[in-house]
Amino acid sequence: MKKTMLASFGALTVAALAPTLVFAHGYVAGEFPSRVNLCHSTNGSKNDCASASYDRQSLEAPKGFPTTGPVDGKIASAQKGGSFDVLDQQSSNKWYKTKIQAGQNDFHWFSTANHKTTDYVYYITKPGWDQNAPLTRASFDLANPFCVINMDGQQPPKDLGDAHSCTVPERSGYQVILSVWTIDDTANAFYNVIDVEFEDGVTPPPLPDVWEQSTTIAPKEDLVAGDKVKARFFDSSVGSFTTNTIIEINSTASGQRNTWSYDLAMAINAEQTDAKSGVKSSDDVFTPIYGNNPIYLKADSNLSSVEIDIVKGDIPVDDSITVVGLENEYVINNNAVEVTFNIEAVGNLNVTNTVFDANNKAIGSASAHVNDTVKSFTISLDDVTAGTFKLVSVANSNDDSNLSLQESNSFNIVNADVPGDCQDVQAVDISKQYKPGDKVSYQENIYQAERWTDTGMTPDQPYSGWVIVGPCA
């Protein structure tokens, strides 16, 4: 059996709220320490809460919880105020979490003065509680305290008291336990919260996840105006970084470490299809937070890893390439297509552009030297069929042998408009999977399947497996 011990906070005495001074103090200690005890035992290094570490035994407020006691939003600090307000900060990544399992666990209060006691009561947060909002009564399952230790006015042992053997209910992930130690002969009680992470035995094995965590945006420093943060996504199908999401810091406020982490996660969610960032819900909703933001990659995509780069604004302008003028569609003419576009280059670069088909086969390329200018390119493709293609542009510097740049863009090749009647083909049924070559009609256009199609997606959606043939006649 895995044991869990908690440490209680000490007494809070406010004349207006607690008229009787109390000299009994305590906190939850042991293998599973309370939030304030961790602030003390690690000098705040785990959770950046050193200001609350000096008086861990003094978190006291009026008894009678949940009818009375500390107000909502101040439960973790027992409404003590001052340097203890940091304890009320609440997010999914703020506090160090101790591993715990559902079932029988032993909790311990450490009493610096063994005052007469009414009881010890333990509550736990509800399933689905908001991890990124201050703790309130609504956060906890108050109707079902999972453990009540009645003392009937007896004195507990001093120092590390008897174990409170309690059955912890099943939960998953991050949860908060609230333990209330009610003093029998005063008007007060002690309030401690414990941050725990359920590790196993609480839920059936999940189905394979559509999203897999790759890395985390873990901000370590504040940035200044002019700095940039870049998320670079590695595409295993072409063996290189193919796409970037970049944010630029434009003020002191936006350069705060937790702010730029939030902004980068928001930008990834807006720009990327196969990558998302933030706190992931059970129904695959990603919510960026002001702090550490995990980055997830779609399991069936070609993206395999992510790198986070910080580019300082006081560094000279970096070499770069930008593809402009690439059309969304090119039309087949006599089984051939000419793909035209421009490269905007910053720096003295040798640029190679390669077109890959849906099977990741290189079918055409064009290269040139481009030095701080815009260069036009044409890639002729012969014997092509309609489908989705990718242009990968790679640049190597003439001045820096270690520099390599890349940009990737997708485009479609379509058949020339031909007379056709939507009545000659079946209307698409999005509940059905079609094989390569099948044709359907949708919104006055005829589409052809270039691969086995995805169900639940209309032909005009990206990555649905369909390519437009042309409008109905």
Automatic annotation (TrEMBL):
Residues of the N-acetylglucosamine binding protein A domain: 211-309
Signal peptide: 1-24
GO cellular component labels: extracellular region
Domain called GlcNAc-binding protein A third: residue spans: 319-413
Alphabetized SUPFAM superfamilies for the sequence: Carbohydrate binding domain, E set domains
Transmembrane segments: none
Keyword annotations from UniProtKB, A to Z: Chitin-binding, Secreted, Signal
Biological process terms in GO annotation: carbohydrate metabolic process
Listed GO MF terms: carbohydrate binding; chitin binding; hydrolase activity, hydrolyzing O-glycosyl compounds
Annotated Chitin-binding type-4 domain residues: 25-196
Pfam family, one: LPMO_10
Protein name: Chitin-binding protein
